[in-house]
Amino acid sequence: MSLSKVIAIDGPSGSGKSTIAKKLAESLNVLYIDTGAMFRALAYSCDQRNIPLRAGSEMDDFLSEINLEYGKSQDFLIGIDGENLTKKIREHNVSKLASIISQIPQVREFLLNYQRELASRVVCVMEGRDIGTVVFPNAFCKFFVTASVEVRSKRRLNQLNEAGDSDLSLEQIMMDVKKRDESDMNREVAPLKMAEDADLVDTSDMELLDVLNSLKRSVEDRAKGIGITL
After folding, report:
1. pLDDT more than 70, % of the chain
2. Distance between CA atoms of 49 and 11, rounded to whole angstroms?
């Protein structure tokens, strides 16, 4: 199997992988693809339309009728049928819904094809939870980004505070993070795990700039070694 021009960044919720992926793509001047936003958008839209988050004809109809749009900008990252969902998918309950919908085979197949089409022609940074294990097992560069539960929970609390949604305590968020980790790691379909050929990056005690510099060097070295032009 030939190597794909994908830089795969996987890891648990709140590990900083989204921020890292965005900044890394910017520094390398390549496309950034947020797969988590896609699952969140589908979950949010199903919730709004009262579509059950389970396999079945209703989900098949939903996926066949919608127009998923990946805008690739800060103001419009993701939308469905013309509605900009970029901010709405960051609401607190959407994470849990996204974790549920990500286990539905039809949804995974729908997004897998969509993601592979987006990444088929250009070098890109793609982040999620199974990019290096399922979606692009042939990615030329793979990282598994993680951090301690406490650090990830504090990051989530800061996000909620900045969004004006600060009703939850740190302890409550830590419980949510632990439950989410357990669900993601033990699910039957594409459980969260590190690819055997991925580099482990623990960001608990690292500054963002140090993480970016390390990953950028690794990507550039690997790209040069196999003849990929960034």
Report:
1. 99
2. 30
Instruction: Give me the phi and psi of 128, to 5 degrees please.
Output: 180, -140
Angle formed by the axes of helices 208-226 and 17-28, to 10°?
Answer: 50
Structure token pair of residue 176 = 């949510």
CA distance 135 to 123: 15
Q: What does the pLDDT look like over 18-34, one tens digit per residue?
A: 899 999 999 999 999 98
Instruction: Supply the pLDDT for residue 1.
Output: 63
Instruction: Give the phi and the psi of residue 127 in degrees, each rounded to 5.
Output: -125, 150
Residues 6+ apart with CB under 8 A from 201: 20, 143, 144, 145, 146, 211, 214, 215
- Tokens 């594409």 -> residue: 190
End-to-end distance of the chain based on CA atoms, in angstroms? Answer: 21
Q: What angle do CA 161, 207, 94 make, to 5 degrees?
A: 35
How far is residue 126's CA from residue 131's CA, in Å, rounded to a whole number? 7
Half-sphere exposure of 135 (CA within 13 A, CB side): 34
Angle at 98 between CA 82 and CA 161, to 5 degrees: 85
Tell me the pLDDT band of 197, cut-offs 50, 70 and 90: very high
Of the candidates 139, 107, 110, which has an alpha carbon nearest to the alpha carbon of residue 123?
A: 139
Note whether 190 and 183 are within 8 A (CB). Answer: no
